[in-house]
Amino acid sequence: VKPMKAIFAGSFDPPTWGHLDIIKRGSGMFEELRIVLARNIRKETIFSPEERQEMLRRLVSDLGLSNVVVDLCGGLLADYAVEHSCNVLLRSVRTLTEIPYEQGMATMNQRLQPSLETIVMFSKPELQDISSSTVRELLAWRRLPPAIVPELVQKELEKRYGPLLQQT
Ligand code: COA
Fold first, then answer.
1. Pocket of ligand 1 (CB under 6 A)
2. Closest ligand 1 atom to the C-alpha of 92?
3. Which residues of the chain carry a pLDDT beneath 50?
4. Could you read off the pLDDT of 130-162 as tens digits, one per residue?
5. CA dist 53 to 13, 14, 119, 151, 159, Å?
């Protein structure tokens, strides 16, 4: 059996506690976990890839996860996986409605690279409502309830948007 080296890819704009939960759990399952900032052609981002990489590196280091690497990928994830000898794509789903989308991506990625397996992890129930686009939407009203993003992400958001109220 080959050691499992996994990729957890996404846009992480911004990183949330939902992502960090998967990163923590994933780092305990795989020999190496690569967090890969990949490009979703359907999304515009608020932070540059380098800014998101820097935030994720600091978060991973604060958590003391020594087998986690944070990298950027400008092309296809399947090609990136071959280049870095990764054999697993780790994905997370929050609700069952996300499954058809994940199934389509898993199948296409396997078509592109037949040895690439996708493993799907359920997010914790208390984190199921968190998404980066909800965070982006709340920013328009300068509101961000507690326990959605880590403190260092909140600080980066406040540098751009000014103080964010946690409660009214
Ligand atoms: N907790 C909180 N939020 C979570 C989560 C969790 N456990 N798991 C996923 N999410 C959220 C993300 O924050 C994101 O939220 P948003 O839509 O509000 O931004 C959403 O779920 C998933 O989106 P994202 O992280 O952007 O990933 P994606 O599903 O859009 O996939 C790539 C994007 C980058 C992985 C995909 O486009 C890709 O592989 N691109 C590279 C090019 C390529 O290989 N394409 C072919 C693919 S077959």
1. 9-11, 16, 18-19, 22, 38-40, 76-77, 92, 94, 105, 108-109, 123, 127, 130-133
2. 8
3. none
4. 999 999 999 999 999 999 999 999 999 999 999
5. 10, 10, 23, 16, 17
